Structure formats: structure tokens, C-alpha cells
Prior knowledge:
Strand content: under 5%
Radius of gyration: 14 Å
Oligomer: single chain
Helix content: over 70%
Order of helices and strands: HH
Shape: elongated
Largest sheet: none
Distance between the termini: 22 Å
Number of domains: 1
Amino acid sequence: MLKVERTIENVILGLFVGMTLFGFTSLILGWAGFGYFFALVGILGLLFKLAFYLYEKK
Length: 58
């Protein structure tokens, strides 16, 4: 069960990283609407994931 939970966490982390990269790429290419949304959601997701990791580590 622990391996399944770890896999789900890695998939979610990968989605947030992918959204962040897609957002910044969209900003570079000039698609501001997509870029701001995906970059913001991706960064907020990564920060939430980091906060949850640090809270769980205590």
C-alpha cells in the first residue's frame, strides 16, 4: 500500500512540475492566458506539496 501511495504522490508532483513548465513555456511563446494560469497553479501546487512534505516530516 505504501508503494501505491508513493506512486500517486510522484504522479501529482509530476503534474505540478509539468504545469509549471508548460506555464512558463506559454509565457515565453506569448500565450499569456495559458501561461499565467498554468504557472500560477503549478507553483502553488509545488508550494503546497513542499509544505505538506515538511509538515509530514516533523
